[in-house]
Amino acid sequence: SPRTEAHTLGVAAAPVRLSRAGLGRARTSGRVPPLVRAMPRRTHRVGGPAASSSGSRAAAPAAAAGEGHGGAAAAAASRKPHRFRPGTVALREIRKYQRSTDLLIRKLPFARLVREITQTYNSAPVEGEKRWQAEALMALQEACEHYLVHLFEDANLCAIHAKRVTIMVKDIQLARRIRGANSESLR
């Protein structure tokens, strides 16, 4: 009984009543020392491998040793791939692109776009396609990337001013409006 267990510990216990549901859970009335209240009725088995619900007892040591179905291969397959915390890869990419001076837009797609725009605005229909020197395309691409980088810097400042970290279309529109989108300067 709980009273005799408490007396063996040298602690006076309060009277114990069973709950109304009859599930055998005891409720104490009055003030009871924490040692008596938290004391389990039976000691539980501690340590060792968890028992499996299926299979025989003889199969447990073989599974614990890594033999049988899968073994080390199954453990390696169940391991999750390494994931960086959110923002780590983004910061690494920012540092990478800030260090480099390479062009970020691919050269051939940019050249095709320039030729398409040139053909659209070609005033002489008989002459055919205009030609571009490689250095002229490179200079145009440098100027375009410079313009875009500074436009996104200004749009980022607009987003930060609005207490956001995501650049939205309205930030780019505001940056172009403030700097004068129709002006001849790139900055």
From TrEMBL:
CDD domains: HFD_H3. Keywords: Centromere, Chromosome, DNA-binding, Nucleosome core, Nucleus. Residues 39-81 are annotated as: Disordered. GO terms for molecular function: DNA binding; protein heterodimerization activity; structural constituent of chromatin. InterPro entries: H2A/H2B/H3, Histone-fold, Histone_H3/CENP-A. PROSITE patterns: HISTONE_H3_2. Residues 47-78 have a biased composition (Low complexity). This is Core Histone H2A/H2B/H3 domain-containing protein. It comes from Haptolina ericina. The lineage of its organism: Eukaryota, Haptista, Haptophyta, Prymnesiophyceae, Prymnesiales.
